[in-house]
Amino acid sequence: MASNIGWELYRSFLGVLKEGSLSGAARQLGITQPTVGRHIAALEKSLNVVLFTRSASGLLPTAVALTLRTHAETMETTAAALERAASPQGPEVRGVVRVSASEVIGVEVLPPIITRLRQQHPHLKVELVLSNRLLDLLQLEADIAVRMVRPSQEQLLAKRIGVIEVGLHARNDYLQQHGTPQSLNDLTTHSVIGYDQESAFIRSLAVKGFERSAFSLSSDSDLAQLALIRAGAGIGGCQVKLARQDTRLSRVLPDAFALQLDTWVTMHEDLRNSPRCRVTFDALVAGLQHYVQD
Asked: Out of the domains of life, which is the source (predicted)?
């Protein structure tokens, strides 16, 4: 088995995995279909395995291919991090910086902050990754992360922003039609919006009366939950700051339900001297502090 296999072979392998065909991978990667085919054949020969089988619906990955996927994705992440780190660092701040944040923060809070950042540094490119999963900064899945929990790794540079409060909210016309609950027990007669799959983060909240069995509408997407609240579908959790910006929304049971989310901006300490990461880190800290304190 060959021990020196070029990254481009694994890159094509991932492209076929994601697209399900040689032609789809070629379009995604910006190379020709025959080139992708040669890469897959070369990788199979080097590893002495079969990676894909043909079917009416396209190329199907074998069990070996599925096993290799995680390792290839790790290589992809590392390659992207190397490209970002090697970006030109001339007198102007330029290059690519990858920022991760939760869905709601990424959609509702960060866009104006990033807009101002790029107005000041137009040669800076920002990749915004929205996920409620904590991307691994030590493995360089992202350069900078906005997190709602305190970072525990010593190698991370972290700046505390403050507390973002989450409360229960509903649209005014929903409350006019169904009444305003006076206690958590009253929620049993309401359409409650919540999460779909329990996670460690959800378990850590341990809010009595807000278990999955009580939800009439559920989604693991915070954006979907927010959209349902704004549509008048029921009562759900929403950042108090965001709700105040919408005159149609009212908070309910503020004394019974209030989550205090400690908010941090973090990056690997090795990036502290990178101009692109430093200016982005500082801009996120300043913008989020203004959001929290305003």
From this structure: Bacteria
pTM for this predicted structure: 0.65
Residue 31 phi, psi dihedral angles, 5° rounding: -130, 180
Q: Which residues contact 279 (CB under 8 A, 6 or more apart)?
A: 93, 117, 120, 121, 124
| Residue whose token pair is 């920002």 | 126
Terminal Cα-to-Cα distance of the chain (whole angstroms): 61
CA-CA distances (angstroms) from residue 25 to 12, 150, 197? 7, 39, 32
11-24 pLDDT tens trace: 888 888 888 888 88
What DSSP assignment string belongs to the chain?
--S---HHHHHHHHHHHHHSSHHHHHHHHTS-HHHHHHHHHHHHHHHTS--EEEETTEEEEPHHHHHHHHHHHHHHHHHHHHHHHTS---SS--EEEEEEE-HHIIIIIHHHHHHHHHHH-TTEEEEEEE-SS---TTTTS-SEEEESS----TTEEEEEEEEEEEEEEEEHHHHHHH---SSGGGGGGS-EEE-SS--HHHHHH--TT--GGG-SEE-S-HHHHHHHHHTTS-EEEEEHHHHHT-TTEEEE-TTT-EEEEEEEEEEEGGGTT-HHHHHHHHHHHHHHHHHHH-
CB 71 within 8 A of CB 65: no
Q: What are 91's two structure tokens?
A: 């007198």
Contact 100, 142 (CB under 8 A): yes
Cα–Cα distance between 55 and 223 in angstroms, integer? 37
Q: What is the pLDDT of residues 50-61, one digit of tens each?
A: 988 887 777 888
